[in-house]
User: Fold this.
Amino acid sequence: MSDELDPVTALHEHLAATAERPVERESGWRLGEAEALAAEIAGGGVDQTTVVRRADEIRTLLAEIDGTGDRDADEHVAAARELANRIAERADGE
Assistant:
């Protein structure tokens, strides 16, 4: 996985990767919700305002996760947090 991809695509890939990891139940629920939102915006066809709004929702979900119980998943969550922050902080588009 490379963050050289479009940040929205990279965000979705990091979140999708956590689905394959043995994460704690509460974290798994939030990750699943975040992944669904990321899939929506990674699929294209949504306007920039929606992309930013969904990234902010993802950022909120990920902020509630203290740890997943899995080191690899934690690394994906950290990367996803950075990407969600970058996307959500886009002012008027790029």
User: Anything to note?
Assistant: The first helix runs from residue 7 to 18.
